[in-house]
Amino acid sequence: MLEKTLENKKIKPTAMRLLVLRQLVESRATISLKDLEKKFERADKVTLYRTLKTFEDKKLIHSIEDGTGSIKYALCEEGCECQPEDQHIHFHCVQCGETYCLTKSKIPQTQIPIGFKVSSASMVYKGLCVNCA
Ligand SMILES: [Zn+2]
Ligand SMILES: [Zn+2]
Ligand SMILES: [Zn+2]
Please, which residues have CB less than 5 A from ligand 3, an ion? Predict the structure, then answer.
């Protein structure tokens, strides 16, 4: 099933990619490169980084800047093209530090001045998650 997910996105399923994908599927919150490095202590850091980049380029995952300075990653929804109108709001818990995808809450569309071109959009709510509230 994981292999199929990769093949659908035209990503060659290598052992490392499958491991990283499993991690992303099983995680309730978003994952940073550091989290992955901790999970796969013996894996090459560059390989881990490249795996995330490949996944992101193929629109299997999206990256999130939650203001903490470390980029988080999460699986995209089915059919996501990672366009500004596909983006959802993210929630960063100030207590446990986890960042969650609020996939049901799309970023509100707003009027962009003529001549401006949007390439990405992000919105992060901060507060306490359900485990910390
Ligand atoms: Zn996406
Ligand atoms: Zn929390
Ligand atoms: Zn997300």
Answer: 74, 101
Nearest partner of 124 among 73, 74, 75, 67, judged by Cα = 67
Phi-psi region of 132 (alpha: psi -120 to 50; beta: other; left: phi over 0): alpha
Architecture of domain 2-127: Orthogonal Bundle (1.10)
Evaluate if pTM is beyond 0.70. yes
Distance (Å) from CA 56 to ligand 1 centroid: 8
Instruction: Read off the pLDDT of residues 107-122 as tens digits, 9 standing for 90 and up.
Output: 998 899 999 999 888 9
